[in-house]
Structure formats: C-alpha cells, structure tokens
Amino acid sequence: MQWNSVSDFFAMGGYAFYVWGSFGACALAMLVESLLLRQQRAELLRSLKDQHEA
After folding, report:
1. How far apart are CA 31 and CA 20, in angstroms?
2. What mean pLDDT value characterizes the chain?
3. Residue 8 and residue 40: Cα distance in Å, rounded?
4. How far apart, in whole angstroms, are the C-alpha atoms of residue 29 and residue 42?
C-alpha cells in the first residue's frame, strides 16, 4: 500500500480503527502477560525460599 502523507498512513485506508485497535490490543496483552509472569515468578521464588527455610 502506498501513502501520500503521514495522515494517510495513520488512517490506513479507512481501516485505522481495526488496525490500530488490533495493534493496541496486542501490545496490551504482551504487557499484561509480562507483568503476570513477573508476579508468578516472585511468588514461586518466595514459596521456594519458605520451603527451603522450613
């Protein structure tokens, strides 16, 4: 696809809502996944430490 201006690029030929909404949903999912993994890792390490001390 060819764009004549930056506004044409961001409009995505009339599909901007779908394109940028999909991009945003994917970025949000990756952010949430990384935060959840970090939280689970911390809980696991805390559990292992407690078991080791017991």
Report:
1. 16
2. 92
3. 42
4. 20
DSSP state of 5: S
- Tell me the CA end-to-end span of the chain in Å, nearest whole number: 63
Handedness of CA 37, 39, 45, 51 (dihedral sign): negative
Q: Which two tokens stand for residue 3?
A: 């764009």
Summarize pLDDT for 22-39 with one digit per residue, the tens: 999 999 999 999 999 999
CA trace torsion 29, 34, 38, 43 (10° rounding): 30
Tokens 């970090």 label which residue? Answer: 38
Q: Which residues contact 18 (CB under 8 A, 6 or more apart)?
A: 12
Phi, psi of 16 (to 5 degrees): -60, -45
